[in-house]
Amino acid sequence: MPGMQAHRALAYVFWHWTRPTVDADRYESMLRAFQESLLANAPTGYRAGAVFRHGSAAWLPGRDRCYVDWYRIDGSAALDALNDAAISTACRASHDAAAGLAAGGTAGLYELRRGAVAPGEVRAATWFSKPAAMTYQALESDLADRLPGGGVELWCRRMTLGPTPEMCVLAASAVALPDAYGAASVPMESIWFAAARSAPAIPVHGDAS
pTM score, two decimals? Predict the structure, then answer.
């Protein structure tokens, strides 16, 4: 989206799914163990993490059991530190244990455009793209009128890293949008979330730096 600035609130969003024979409780236990390990050894720029059970979606394999991790970071420079921390000596065992049960994954990088919602309150993600005939300025104006004043977050894809949609609204329930947006709402259920102790508050798009 035009006009984005560096060092904004970003999220590395990673979808993953297991092989059909993998026990869900075992996999989720390993996911929590890895997240706790990463939190205890939080890299520079890591703000918070959350893991959700994720419903089926067009960009995911046709499986009933999918998951999505949201890694909130201080900007794109924090991606290197996050990647290195995930496979560091402190985290490698728990990372590899979970990864060994996964059948595949895909990811995207998103920027927080507006709003705030506690991870534990998120029950749905509404994914959509800007209508071709609409400017981004008009899109943001329209969404400002349509989205509730609180309890929602609007995210926009920062780079095209995979087949995931351009924009997302995280909220306690699905958000209704016009047909032109091609919106698809996906149910989500939180299984883990936490914030790094030293995570600083950084501005979302449009706030003063």
Answer: 0.89
